[in-house]
Specification:
Chain lengths: 222, 222
DNA sequence: GCAAAAGTGTTCTAGGTACACCCATGT
DNA sequence: ACATGGGTGTACCTAGAACACTTTTGC
């Protein structure tokens, strides 16, 4: 039941920063640690990489096991390996980030029954290890990748209004955008297409529903 | 003399892609492997991370030990961890890349006397492990970071001509650039400053020598 | 004087930014 | 009828792209 090596080997983990937008806030999924170190503190989901799985598979598995979130596309963020980042032993962590649409946040109770919650990125609690650093870097990366990718659409359900999409950009970039310019750019880039449907949800003109251009129903992005 | 753990731990290494420009070519530093696997094949410098050093320190140390190259600023590139990327055991590698100026390429003989050589990135030999993949990714990253950073200047000696600098851009981007627009952009960005000196090296008008703006003599970039 | 690289401005185009009003609905 | 968010076009400005000739030197 012991594994031995001729030279010292560090432990390798993955940590995953999952973003969503709820209640007009950019939020991150955290779990409460049930055992030391940092017992009771909030931390990113993640865990040890198994010998037979790739890093991304490990991240995906841990995320599903600990939070019930699956089917998210993950991007590698950075690898953190300061010798003292974990007080127990040398732990190197490969961080990933991803986005879940607000309409399917079924974070089923974690298998190990640990507490699980979404936090506004603006008001995070004290985080375990160097996780605050990881989240900060993930935010920066998310903002940097917004233009020139379709990440923003990953926050959206299949059909969405342009106002909703604009709100995603504004929350991530942290600044207001001009409505007309925003729409013009999307149309010019050919990113969205009209579904022909509308949504009415208040005392105002109904909003047209769009989808990411290129996929009708189910299909590949890009 | 054996290290034991309750759970299996992968080995963790760093690999370093060092670029330079020599003979009007973008080149990469490789070492010849002296032992299996891939004995005799060319590979990136790198090796196991020690327990008490950070990942970047490990990369820097391995680079110095194996190639004699030091004082290079390294950027983390990506972490590669496919389960079968090393036939011996599970090895996860954190890849870094960096740039050395052509005027101090003192690649002193490696401590372990392995062969060491610069290769044109266009004509690489067969590389060990997934190192071809790593080099490809490093090239893309280098090109992507060219604008909006001062990486290009790391290829240059302290003083350089604008034609030399332009050649760096052209080699990395793989396309010819307009001389006037190139100079205009550098000046507009305030990146270079005239040293007042000239270089004459042929039957033509001497070229003015510039340096990276902001540092007179020795000083910090940015 | 000729070959060879250094140096230098202007015009055009496209993309980004600023900006204000009418429209369709629910109550 | 009024409050609420949805939807639309034009003018300006700036950054990037295209483009050709003169200068200074070594031989």
């Amino acid at each position: 039941m012991a594994y031995r090596y001729e030279y010292p080997h560090p432990a390798v983990t993955t940590d995953i920063v999952v973003f969503t937008i709820r209640q007009d806030e950019l939020e991150v999924l955290l779990i409460e640690r049930e055992s030391p170190p940092f017992q009771g503190a909030w931390a990113l989901p993640g865990g040890f990489v198994n010998p037979e799985e790739s890093l991304e598979e490990g991240a995906r598995r841990e995320l599903a096991e600990e939070t019930g979130v699956s089917g998210v596309s993950l991007e590698q963020l950075y690898t953190f390996g300061e010798p003292d980042r974990d007080p127990r032993e040398r732990v190197i962590t490969v961080a990933y980030y991803g986005v879940v649409p607000a309409d399917r946040l079924e974070t089923r109770a974690a298998s190990d029954a640990a507490a699980l919650a979404w936090f506004d990125v603006q008001e995070l609690p004290e985080l375990a290890f160097d996780h605050a650093h990881i989240v900060r870097m993930a935010r920066e990366r998310l903002a940097a990748r917004l233009d020139g990718s379709t990440i923003a659409f990953q926050f959206m359900p299949e059909m969405f209004t342009l106002s909703d999409l604009q709100r995603v950009y504004e929350l991530i970039l942290g600044q207001a955008l001009d409505k007309r310019n925003f729409r013009k750019k999307l149309v010019a880039a050919g990113l969205v297409e009209d579904t022909g449907e509308e949504r009415r949800d208040g005392a105002h003109r109904p909003a047209k529903l769009y989808r990411l251009a290129g996929r009708r129903g189910v299909g590949a992005i890009r």
